[in-house]
Specification:
Strand content: 35-45%
Number of helices: 11
CATH architecture of the largest domain: 3-Layer(aba) Sandwich
CATH topology of the largest domain: Collagenase (Catalytic Domain)
Protein name: Por secretion system C-terminal sorting domain-containing protein
Keywords: Signal
Radius of gyration: 30 Å
Mean pLDDT: 88
CATH class of the largest domain: Alpha Beta
GO molecular function: metallopeptidase activity
Low-confidence stretches: 1-26, 140-168, 917-922
Pfam families: Reprolysin_4 (PF13583)
Organism: Chryseobacterium oleae
Distance between the termini: 51 Å
Length: 997
């Protein structure tokens, strides 16, 4: 539902927010060596020239060890280049990652942005020439506190502070321009003294932090900050605490003290108000920790510098970046998004006092940039489980910031951008039954970016009576739980790059907990009739500046329901394929919402439901279904679905697995890779050259095993220190459990264990060696082993065999039972022997017809015409005529009693028309120069070229369909011939051959 409003919105807050991170923590991530002198040699001489530095390269290993090459160009953070400090923007060769990087003396700092979030690169504190890369928003022990402070400006505007409470999805989309503010950073005398009085070092710290923050704000809200000359010429880098204009609060950061200092500087003309748009004070703490306090508003002389951030020099830059990003969010009016009360043992009320009536949109402590994460833990633990330190603004925060940028924080200048914003559509408003799982699916498009990420969030702001109400167990101020409230937030924010849909709650809770997740999972279904608002936000993750769009849908919860499956629900049920089974469910008046339902079948415990038992049958509580001719499984589940529209449904799944017996032994698989492919129809690139995968056991995220089963002897390799930075072979020929596994999706995984001492290491080969070591939950200090709860995060790739090597040092092995749990984008599975009498092929299913259009054992689809296809793998009984699959759907093949099993995953194949250039060679009003080209190709024409495609001679698309911005960079391509295709808004207008020298 798109909502268009014709008036501007203004919101203010009459409190200031503060954050305090109480102590340092050992960092996750990985350490790598770096030759800074070699890197610096690229621009050592050119930095003496006036021209901006460009064509500089840096290779940075990602957390998984793979190197990413970035092309760097000097950015405009400072008005003039500083003598000892350089700041760069960077884009990876495949344009999937971007960075901000600052160089000072003999080291650099950087922040990398990709569709997985933000990553910090900083010098490692123990060894010169070593750097650490880690997720910028990794979990740390944090504590936030809030102060209350008013000023006259806020009082005058207080009457409209709630004006956004009922408004959402305004000021979207955005991203086609950048708003630039003049930022005045002033540092205290204590700040400079922490660098032994060296103002260059103090300035470098300030510049570096602003450079890091710019990446977050450019990506999230298309806002950037330029440091004013008074900061960079060190006028505002004070050296003496006795003479600087600031009063350092020994107990906490003070936004008021910051503004007072800036007011003083205006009075004594050190820095007059008209020289800057927004101000911020930096201070260095003499002991560990990080603290901040801030409030609105930029552009108002007497309040635009109400922001104070301070930290210890030993704090990781990721913590400091998160601190300043949070505080600057407050400067732009973004309030705390959590709905929790209490605090910590040492500050038992700071969550209560920091609760915000205009922004309390996240259940519990929240998880986004303006939430409180792990900090509201007493008297009730209101921390969201899992990833509760997310690197983006909640939709409510975006609303508040964007409204403030309209007025009153509109003193920025506009910087042109070639980015085009994405488009988000959440669908139409729907009605669902109470206490019933449901699914929402959004629609997202983008004209010039493909690395989209998708966020679904509940958008209901807690009322005063909802304050602190959390899930089904924690009551709020009004004396009721969130599930019994008509207004309280129930569902946490979730972001993904793989799908526009979200299940409420997560399917694991539907399958394992009878639709009732634990309170701290923040996934509770409503038990009463109410309205819920949900926001679907699309980010384009553009390398220059982020483009975003957001749309809202209203979900009306009826007092009817729940819809619940009643048979097959018990344990011990068995049924043969090709026989009938009566499926029953409790309707509970849900037929007044949806009169017809679909009945689906899963054979993998509910991971997927590929088989349709019935379609569009009456929602009357019973249907006699025929079990199809499918392989034997003991993990069958039934799903009854009320499909509201193609983008929304409510449903329930049977509570327990049941057995289907069959003489069909076709086996399940996961194909790799599953990334989308684009090629020219008939070209060599349309031959995907895929290999038949091994048979796969059922996927899982949790595995329980008994330690004395399957024991072996192996090396024990763990980390050599508590920082978990380098492995060491601590023991050889130890008694271990070793088992092989794969992951269903590439990404970062964290493995945790149940209680008790257990070393859990992961290797990419067997037997375990230092060379194939990937991660562990343990470290060895030379005399003792320490086993932590979780292994350090590691990036694992689909289609690769990995090995758990596990030991508790009992010899002989005891019979202790342990449970390993994985957290990551996918699940784990183990491969098994392929049964005799079965073959494997890949099929291309035409997305327009749903029918198989081609089959190939190697995914050679050079015979296919232009179009969009879904590629799957199919194991089938070898006696079947595979050529007969063409022209039929998978369901039709099963109905013909052909024994087969389609892969659990798939990939999209897009085939474009021929690369032929003859039909466009007579166009005379388009010129391509120079041709041959070495670095930069220009298009000379009066036509409105919007996009281009570039193909090598094998037909491989090198860039997708890329937005045209005036030049085409050929630097990174190998010498040879390429086909260039130019497009305007109507379609293809020109094709030619380009020779790369």
């Amino acid at each position: 539902m798109k909502t268009k409003l014709t008036f501007f919105l203004l919101i203010v807050f009459n409190i200031f927010w503060a954050q305090n991170i109480s102590k340092e923590a050992s960092l996750p991530g990985s350490v790598f060596p770096f030759d800074f002198q070699r890197f610096d040699s690229q621009f050592r001489e050119t930095r003496l020239k006036k021209e901006k530095i460009s064509k500089v390269w840096i290779n940075i290993p990602a957390e998984n060890g793979k190197s990413i090459r970035f092309n760097l160009s000097e950015n405009g953070l400072t008005e003039q280049r500083l003598n000892s400090i350089l700041t760069f923007d960077g884009v990876s060769e495949d344009r999937s990652s971007s960075l901000k990087l600052s160089v000072f003396k003999d080291h650099f700092n950087a922040i990398i942005k990709n569709d997985e979030g933000y990553f910090i690169v900083e010098p490692y504190k123990t060894s010169p020439g070593e750097y650490r890369i880690y997720n910028a928003f990794s979990k740390f022990d944090e504590r936030f506190t809030c102060g209350v402070e008013e000023n006259d400006v806020i009082k005058e505007l207080a009457v409209v502070k709630q004006s956004l409470n009922s408004k959402s999805a305004v000021n979207f989309p955005f991203g086609n321009q950048i708003r630039k503010f003049r930022l005045a950073v002033a540092t205290t005398g204590e700040f400079t003294q922490a660098f032994a009085g060296n103002t260059d070092d103090a300035l470098a710290e300030a510049v570096n932090m602003v450079n890091l923050i710019n990446k977050i704000y450019e990506s999230e809200v298309s806002v950037t900050f330029g440091l004013i000359a008074d900061t960079t010429n060190k006028t505002l880098i004070f050296t003496d605490p006795a003479t600087d204009p600031f009063t350092v609060d020994a107990s906490f950061a003070s936004a008021a003290n910051s503004q007072t200092g800036f007011n003083t500087m205006n009075t004594n003309t050190t820095l007059v108000y008209n020289k800057y748009d927004i101000g911020h004070t930096f201070n260095i703490l003499s002991s560990g920790g990080a603290q901040g306090q801030a409030g609105p508003q930029p552009c108002n002389n007497t309040s635009k510098s109400r922001a104070w951030s301070q930290w210890a020099l030993t704090m990781p830059k990721g913590i400091v970046a998160g601190l300043i990003a949070h505080e600057m969010g407050h400067q732009f009016s973004a309030g705390h998004t959590y709905n929790a009360v209490g605090g910590s043992a040492s500050s038992p009320t700071f969550c209560t006092s920091g609760w915000n009536a205009g922004a309390a949109i996240e259940p519990g402590g929240g998880s986004t940039l303006m939430g409180y994460s792990t900090n509201c833990s007493t008297p009730n633990n209101q921390t969201n489980t899992g990833n509760n330190n997310l690197s983006y603004f909640n939709a409510r925060s975006l609303d508040q910031i964007l409204a403030y940028l309209q007025t009153p924080a509109n003193c920025y200048t506009i910087v042109a951008s070639t980015n085009q914003a994405p488009s988000a559509n959440a669908g139409v408003d729907i009605t669902i039954p109470k206490n019933t799982p449901f699914k929402l699916k959004g629609i997202a498009t983008d004209p010039n970016d493909s690395n989209l990420s998708y966020t679904w969030e509940q958008a209901d702001i807690a009322t005063a009576n909802d304050k602190g109400a959390f899930g089904s167990t924690i009551t709020g101020t009004g004396g009721y739980t969130a599930v019994n409230s008509t207004t309280a937030p129930l569902f946490r924010s979730e972001q993904t790059v793989s799908t526009t849909e979200r299940y409420f709650p997560k399917m694991q809770f539907v399958l394992n907990n009878q639709n009732n997740p634990p309170t701290n999972d923040a996934e509770a279904l409503p038990l009463v009739a109410r309205n819920m608002k949900f926001r679907f936000t699309v980010r384009d993750n553009n390398a220059t500046n982020g483009g975003l769009d957001s749309d809202e849908i209203i979900v009306t919860v009826s007092n009817n329901g729940p819809l619940t499956v009643s048979y097959p629900n018990a344990t011990g049920i068995s049924v043969a394929s090709n026989t009938n089974m009566t499926v029953t469910w409790d309707v509970n008046n849900t037929n007044t919402i949806k009169s017809n339902v679909d009945i689906l079948l899963s054979i993998d415990g509910g991971v997927s439901f590929p088989y349709t038992l019935a379609s569009n049958v009456l929602n009357n509580g019973s249907y006699n279904a025929t079990i199809p001719y499918i392989p034997t499984t003991d993990k069958a589940r039934v799903k009854v679905v009320g499909v509201i529209n193609p983008y929304a449904e409510f449903f329930d799944v049977s509570d327990n697995n049941f057995t289907i017996t069959s003489d069909c032994a076709a086996y399940p698989t996961y194909i790799t890779p599953q990334t989308a492919a684009t090629a020219v129809a008939g070209s060599p690139a349309s031959n995907l050259n895929m290999v038949a995968p091994p048979a796969a056991d059922p996927a899982y995220t949790s595995k329980t095993f008994v330690y004395n089963v399957g024991t072996s002897t192996n090396n024990i390799i763990v980390y050599s220190n508590s920082g978990m930075t380098a492995p060491v072979s601590a023991s050889s020929n130890a008694v271990t459990n070793t088992f092989k596994f794969r992951v269903t999706e590439t990404g970062s995984y964290v493995f945790s264990k149940s209680s008790g001492f257990l070393i859990t290491s992961v290797h990419s080969g067997s037997p375990a060696t230092l060379a194939n070591f990937l991660t562990s939950n343990a470290y060895y200090n030379g005399s003792n082993y320490t086993s932590t709860g979780s292994a350090k995060a590691v990036v694992l790739n689909e289609g690769v065999d990995y090995y758990f090597v596990i030991s508790n040092f009992s010899n002989p092995a005891n019979a202790t039972s342990y449970t390993l749990t994985s957290a990551g984008p996918g699940s784990l599975y183990e491969t098994t022997t392929t049964p005799a009498g079965y073959s494997y092929t890949f099929v291309a299913i035409n997305n327009s017809t749903g029918k198989i259009q081609a089959v190939s054992p190697t995914a050679n689809f050079t015979s296919l015409p232009a179009g969009t296809f879904t590629v799957k793998g199919i194991s089938y009984v070898s006696t079947a005529n595979v050529s007969s699959f063409v022209g039929k759907s998978v369901s039709e093949l099963i109905a013909l009693n052909i024994c087969l099993n389609e892969s659990k995953n798939s990939r999209v194949l897009t085939l474009t028309s021929s690369l032929g250039t003859k039909e466009y060679q007579n166009v005379t009003d388009i010129k391509i120069v120079p041709n041959p080209v070495k670095d930069i190709l220009s298009v000379i024409t009066d036509k409105q070229v919007t996009h281009y495609e570039l193909y090598d001679m094998s037909g491989r698309n090198m860039v997708g369909r890329k937005k045209y911005s005036g030049n085409i960079i050929f630097t990174e391509y190998s010498a040879g011939s390429y086909v260039l295709r130019l497009f305007d808004k109507e379609g293809l207008i020109y094709t030619t051959t380009v020779i790369k020298k």
